[in-house]
Specification:
Blueprint: E1 13-15, E2 22-24, E3 32-33, E4 35-39, E5 42-49, E6 55-61, E7 83-86, E8 93-99, H1 105-109, E9 120-126, E10 130-137, H2 187-190, H3 233-241, E11 255-256, E12 259-260, E13 282-299, E14 306-324, H4 329-348
Parallel strand pairs: 3-14
Antiparallel strand pairs: 1-2, 4-5, 5-6, 6-8, 7-10, 8-9, 9-13, 10-13, 11-12, 13-14
The chain binds calcium ion (4 copies).
The site of one calcium ion has 8 residues, from loops.
């Protein structure tokens, strides 16, 4: 319990009415993994503690800025701006409760009518204070693999200062790029080969043994024809149509004896010219951290007792596999060209 603003007027010692035993609450709800749910348009974030004492903290929020979300378990996907919500009135409030028995959260906080037992024996409700919600990507540690291509961010030129490596210069940094060399073969499928295939020192497939792993090599077999031009555009189109299964599937049809031309230096014909690019959408993870500033809970029994902190880190909500759209510079240009053409057609009409 940090930064106690005022002396705690509440002793944390409670006398249970039932058996006369002294129950001491630990008030152990800081930095909790919060569980979100939604009820009557309100978001509720709750945490319970059933060690030694049965207690819960729940944050009820009803704020328009939290509504524009993809699913009810997401508070916000805005990683650039923190949200501050004043805790006032019935709509936005923090509630601390102590019960006479074990508390399971979901039934209590996420159903219209809470169960009859356990019984609430003490209740504290916020009087003022601000809930500050800070949301950040939760997949940007050096060990994480944001684009799920099997290579950790740290090995893909992720830079905490924002100067990320973009090998193919397509506008998508390597750590978010499912096709780092823009050859239309996803990194996940070209980073490893069979055990007998040549590899780089780091152990990645290096077909032409030029020291550049295939996943960063735009000409994998070093026959002078870019890999992207050794793949039948129908195969790329099919991968795009199959909506981001991230793999050219089945095996590219431009092949000899089951061996794709782009890995065969003796085959450089046919040579396909096209500017198709794979779908680069991925999914990402987020963490929202909830801090209560000017934390002030008032006991609801009329005694006026309260609990205060100037800052209290209530906890966090993690969400994973949230769709994250990405377009390469080329795809964006194509999109704009199409829009312009549409406009011109409209004008002509
Ligand atoms: Ca990766
Ligand atoms: Ca890139
Ligand atoms: Ca590639
Ligand atoms: Ca080639």
């Amino acid at each position: 319990m940090k930064k106690i603003l005022a002396a705690l007027f509440f002793s944390f010692a409670l006398f249970s009415c039932d058996d006369g035993d002294i129950t001491v609450t630990s008030f152990d709800l800081e930095n909790s993994d919060l569980t979100p749910c939604e009820i009557d348009d309100k978001k509720v974030l709750w945490a319970v503690n059933n060690e030694d004492v049965y207690e819960s903290m729940s944050l009820e929020l009803d704020d328009n800025r939290l509504r524009d979300t993809l699913s009810q378990t997401i508070l916000t996907l805005d990683v650039s701006e923190d949200l501050e919500i004043n805790l006032s009135g019935e709509d936005n409030r923090l509630v601390y409760r102590i019960y006479d028995g074990e508390i399971t959260g979901g039934e209590y906080f996420c159903k219209g009518v809470p169960p009859g037992s356990p019984r609430v024996i003490e209740e504290y409700v916020s009087a003022g204070g601000v809930a500050k919600i800070t949301t950040r990507f939760n997949d940007i540690t050096l060990e994480a693999d944001a684009d799920a291509d099997g290579i950790p961010n740290g090995e893909e030129g992720y830079d905490p200062d924002g100067d990320h490596l973009d090998t193919d210069g397509d506008g998508i940094p390597d750590y978010l790029d499912i096709d780092d060399d823009n050859d239309n073969v996803p990194t996940a499928t070209e980073k490893n080969g069979s055990p007998e295939d040549p590899t780089t020192e780091e152990g990645y497939l290096d077909t032409d043994e030029d020291g550049i792993p295939d996943y960063l090599d735009p000409d994998d077999d070093n026959d002078g024809i870019l890999t992207r031009h050794e793949i039948d555009p129908d195969d790329v189109q099919r991968a795009i149509d199959e909506n981001n299964d991230d793999f050219l599937s089945p095996i590219p049809t431009a092949e000899v004896d089951g061996f794709p031309n782009y890995l065969n230096k003796d085959v450089f014909d046919p040579n396909f010219e096209h500017d198709l690019q794979l779908d680069h959408h991925i999914t990402r993870s987020y963490r929202s951290t909830i801090e209560i500033k000017n934390f002030n809970l008032i006991r609801q029994d009329g005694s006026g007792e309260d609990i205060r902190f100037d800052s209290y880190i209530l906890g966090r909500v993690d969400v994973t596999r949230i769709p994250f759209q990405q377009f390469t510079n080329q795809q964006q240009e194509n999109e704009e060209d199409e829009d312009n053409e549409d406009e011109e057609t409209d004008i002509e009409d």
